[in-house]
Amino acid sequence: MNTLIKHIHSLVDLACRSVLYLTLSVTFVILSVNVALRYAAGSSLAWASELPELLFPWMIMSGVVLAAQHGSHIAVVILTQRLGASRRWVLAMGSVLVAFLYTYLAWQAYPLMEISADERSPIMGVPGSVTVLCLMLGFVLLALVTLSQIPSLLNPSAADPTDSDTNTLIGADA
User: Fold this and answer.
1) What angle (nearest 5°) sits at the alpha carbon of residue 135, between those of residues 72 and 13?
2) Other CB atoms closer than 10 Å to residue 167's CB: what's the count?
């Protein structure tokens, strides 16, 4: 089971880092070229402002998933620190609730994909469903990451789940 969880985390990490680096690099290059063209030629590429807008949600959502996976979100642990030994179960149940909510958000995004597919960006003609797909995939990955962290929450030999130095658990995140 631990091997499967490690493989899932590695795959999610690789996918999100790839999307993050690709979108950040493409956005930087496009904006840099567009600024250079404005100064050198007095004009710019028409699509150069639209593509970063389309890439931005992918960049942000991949960063959110990575932050959740590595415990980099802000955690409010004042309540769970006072619970003692039962905190692991409370955090695990909280993780189940959070995963359910992420799954619900992904489910609710699906009909929006169909609706937004008719809307197209003005210059490039990219359907609006691309952005909704980004959110839907992000919510699914967040649910997957949250659920995969529950076994380490329930393992008493693991580090304290409310310790901010070792906290890699989205269930404790706010």
Assistant:
1) 45
2) 21
